[in-house]
Amino acid sequence: MGSILARIKQGRWWKFHGGIHPPEQKFLTMHKPIRNLPLPKVLVLPLKQHIGQKGDIQVNVGDNVLKGQPLTNSPHPMAVPIHAPTSGIITEIKNTLVAHPSGLSELCIFIKPDEKEEWVARHICQDYKQLSAQEILTKITNAGIAGMGGAGFPTNVKINTKVATKFLIINAAECEPYITADDLLMREHSSEIVDGIKILNKVLSAEQILIAIEDNKPEAIKALKKVTGSLDNFHVCVIPTIYPTGGEKQLITRLTGLEVPQGGLPSALGIVVQNVATCFAVADAVINDIPLIRRVVTVTGKALEKPQNVWALLGTPIKHLLTQCGYQKQSPEHLIMGGPMMGFSLPSIDISITKTSNCILAPSTKEIPKDNNEVDCIRCGQCADVCPSQLLPQELQWFAKAKDHDQLQKFNLFDCIECGACAYVCPSQIPLVHYYRIAKAEIRQQQQQDLKAEKAKARFEARKQRLAQEKIKREEKHRKAAEARKAAMNSNTAQAKDAKSAVAAALARAKAKKAQASDDNNDKKSQVSAAIARAKAKKQAKDGIATNKTTTAKTSDRLTKEKNADDQEVLDSITSSNTETTKPNTKKQNSNDNNNETATKEKVLTKAEKIALAVAKAKAKKAAENSSTHHTDSNLNSIDNDINNQNNTDDINAKKQRIAVAVAKAKAKKQQQSTESKNNQSKESS
């Protein structure tokens, strides 16, 4: 400590590796006071404007809000709230483009100002020295203050350290070209900045306070020395101008000669670093109860008619700032948020100002060309010579292109502060920082996924172990209970007898239950058997009906065939009788006696014909009633067709009657012939 203070008082500073001297270009805005701007038509406030978690929304579309009213809360230690920069109405809550190198969209709150500037109720602190450290931390947290000179680390988390603080370093170097926001703030508000430093020191109780400022800001140096001349342990350290002195690790090395270990934090060395703009915001919050709703922004570049520093409300669209500073649109349009070394190109002028936005650069085409003609690396080594973190930029670029994350981490990619010195000196015009940013984002995303997987695995293993332990405990408990019951039952006491009786009763109940279950099963089987029997009977009945139908059909077919045969025989007889009438009957010619018999028999045959006709009608009627098959109908139809062919003019019923008469006559004649033949045979035999 003593040697460090001695060197500081002598103005002897340590050096860090590398560094460059780019053109400063600060003359564009360094001689103009900070200007207040009129309200924009709309304010767009991203929920997340810092490193950490975004807060939960506390307002809805259509709500009227007051200036300084919190719009989100901070349930997480790494979440700080945002506040309404002015009074107005919430018009939208939706995703839109935000200030980020990737051009991502995030959830934002849109406020339309009502131009009344009505404040929420505030509580002015008359003497901040009476506040405790915890009260100060609470005020800083509720004010939503995050680091305003770098990545935006929550201030309340950064100063709430349990390690004893040796040095509180105030970063006023502002080493990047073009930017003069901190320079003008120190000139115009040096006393408020010192009040903020005192408030921070009340929480940290640092042994020494070092205000580091580069020697290219003479007016700011004078203002700071004036307000800190009578304060003990305050040291205004004027250091040589070299880029990137403003880097946290480089500034610590420059002032103390100490190096922050890889992957470590300055607090491990007993050092806390804060930006001058953050100190001003702390004083405003603790003393005046004003949350972080505005900041100084440098709007510069040769594409502007009136480059200058302005007080910009958070959420102000960049388009509004450019209009107020006389922006002359270039072709192609090229706008940068931040300085030319560490800034990034903007995809749209509708993006709004956030807590970490300190500069809007609108260079002319000649000043900073938008498109660089990248060529292959020639391995000149200039990037490694100027790297303040002593890395190998060309190796990192190759690994980043190949997405070799293991090698990137092995070559300490996350030690890169993205200062852009390597890209500035690269003769091949390779945008090295661009590759590093993409690789860092990919590695962080992969690490988050791995962390989630590890947590899930740990939860699963813990659950599995817990279940196994519970099972062992349960089995042990049951074993002990069984042993106790067994020991109690083996004793010759009344309780043992009761226990045995209870066991016997339980066994009996179990057997009865088992028997009942067996009976139930038998009943179920009987029911199943009965159901099967019913099904079989039903099936047999169906089969019997089918068999009867088949038998009936067969019988009908047989009767039909027999009838057809008889009919055919009758028809044949009719045909033969017709033929015989044409032939002489030798037997009749030889005997006259036979004529008398024939005449007598004709009378008899006439009666027989009547009988045969009646019989034929009865048979036909019976056949019509009993037959239900198609074959009988078809045979009758065939007979009808034959009759129709013989005499088409007769009535159908008359035809059937004549056919029946003919059939009867034929049968009678056949019978007569048979009788005669028998008589003749008997005569001959006699």
Furnish the topology, listing elements before pairings:
Layout: H1 2-10, E1 35-36, E2 43-46, E3 56-57, E4 64-65, E5 72-73, E6 88-97, E7 105-113, H2 133-142, H3 155-159, E8 167-171, H4 181-188, H5 190-204, E9 208-214, H6 218-228, E10 234-239, H7 248-256, E11 271-275, H8 276-288, E12 294-300, E13 308-313, H9 318-324, E14 336-337, E15 344-345, E16 359-361, H10 382-386, H11 393-402, H12 405-410, H13 421-425, H14 432-490, H15 494-582, H16 586-590, H17 593-626, H18 630-646, H19 652-685
Parallel strand pairs: 1-13, 8-9, 8-11, 9-10, 12-16
Antiparallel strand pairs: 2-7, 3-5, 4-6, 6-7, 12-13, 14-15, 14-16
Helix pairs in contact: 2-5, 4-6, 5-8, 11-14, 14-15, 15-19, 17-19
Write structural notes for this entry.
It is a single chain. This protein is of the alpha/beta class. Among the domains are: 1-31 and 133-289, Rossmann fold (3-Layer(aba) Sandwich), CATH 3.40.50; 372-484, Fumarate Reductase Iron-sulfur Protein, Chain B, domain 2 (Orthogonal Bundle), CATH 1.10.1060; 499-581 and 595-678, no CATH class. Helix content is 51%, strand content 11%. The protein has 19 helices and 16 strands. It has helices spanning 2-10, 133-142, 155-159, 181-188, 190-204, 218-228, 248-256, 276-288, 318-324, 382-386, 393-402, 405-410, 421-425, 432-490, 494-582, 586-590, 593-626, 630-646, 652-685; strands spanning 35-36, 43-46, 56-57, 64-65, 72-73, 88-97, 105-113, 167-171, 208-214, 234-239, 271-275, 294-300, 308-313, 336-337, 344-345, 359-361. Strands 1-13-12-16-14-15 form a six-stranded mixed sheet, sandwiched between helices. The protein has a four-stranded antiparallel sheet with strand order 2-7-6-4, with no helix packed on it. A four-stranded parallel sheet has the order 10-9-8-11, sandwiched between helices. Strand 6 (88-97) and strand 7 form a beta hairpin. Helix 5 (190-204) packs across helix 8 and helix 17 (593-626) crosses helix 19.
